[in-house]
């Protein structure tokens, strides 16, 4: 294998991994991520009260969303994968927020609070987001669901966490 082909292959793999790990791209097309893997998106049906104490985004997991996950993450273009994904993914039909209080609830019913810029130099996260059930601050990793939670907050309450 030539060194230029290896560099190109490595660059493409790095781009795919970066895209798969970053839910930020969902905010640009107004879909919402339900997980940190490539294609884990929900289709936005409607938005009301954005930026207010009663912000609501109605979402739906569609076959097109399932297909994006199957192709983007599982590398499976089959209808069987789409059907399996549709059957397995159980999420609510909305995300809600109170932008005055800086709190929101995701499609799983998990609630969070935005606490501003991270003050710790040890954190991977730009902002402090508290999981209201556990009381823990999300550490910025995809395992902590930080990117998913932040993206939802940014869509419900634009302009607060940029």
Question: Can you give a write-up of this model?
Answer:
With 162 residues, this protein is of the alpha+beta class. Helix content is 35%, strand content 22%. The protein contains five helices and seven strands; from the N terminus they run ααβββααββββα. A seven-stranded antiparallel beta sheet has the order 1-2-3-4-5-6-7. Strand 5 and strand 6 form a beta hairpin. Helix 3 (63-72) packs across helix 4. The radius of gyration is 17 Å and the shape is globular. Mean pLDDT is 83; it is low at 1-28.
The assigned structural class equals: alpha+beta
**Whole-Å distance between the termini?**
43 Å
Write down the secondary-structure element order: HHEEEHHEEEEH
Runs in which pLDDT lies below 50 for 5 or more consecutive residues are: 1-28
Whole-number mean pLDDT: 83
Q: What spatial form do the alpha-carbon principal axes imply?
A: globular
Q: What kind of sheet is the major sheet?
A: 7 strands, antiparallel
Strands, total number: 7
Number of helices: 5
Report Rg.
17 Å
